[in-house]
Design brief:
- It contains 4 helices and no strands.
- The protein is mostly helical.
- The chain has one domain.
- Helix 1 packs antiparallel against helix 2 and helix 2 runs antiparallel to helix 3.
- The longest helix is centred in the C-terminal third of the chain and has 30 residues.
- The chain is elongated and about 50 Å long.
């Protein structure tokens, strides 16, 4: 039963990774692509790692999978924010149909 639940989590993770890859190809600007890649990592890759943990159990591999999940959950949003801020400061323009520019409103 636990193997089936693990495979379900892995399948969900593969689905999110696939959708995230499509977002990287299809979305119009760097900011939207960062959004897609961050969701892809946090939802997709962490689901795959959690499914691997469920299948393997509390072994060295399972603990490493949990540690990698925690590392990804902590670093992925922070790095995406830093990349978006750096892109905005260096002058990368938003898509012409973008609605909100909070960095531009702050004057940073």
């Amino acid at each position: 039963m636990i193997n089936t639940i693990g495979l379900v989590f892995i399948s969900i993770g593969l689905f999110f990774d696939f959708i995230g890859c499509l977002g990287l190809v299809r979305l119009p600007d760097v900011y939207n692509r960062l959004q897609a890649s961050t969701k892809c990592i946090t939802l997709g890759t962490c689901s795959i790692l959690f499914g691997a943990f469920l299948i393997q159990g509390v072994t060295a591999f399972g603990i490493k999978a949990l540690l990698c999940m925690m590392f990804l959950l902590l670093t992925s949003p922070v790095s995406a924010h830093a990349l978006a801020r750096g892109a905005h400061k260096s002058g990368v323009k938003l898509w012409e149909r973008s609605v909100v520019d909070k960095y531009g409103e702050d004057g940073n």
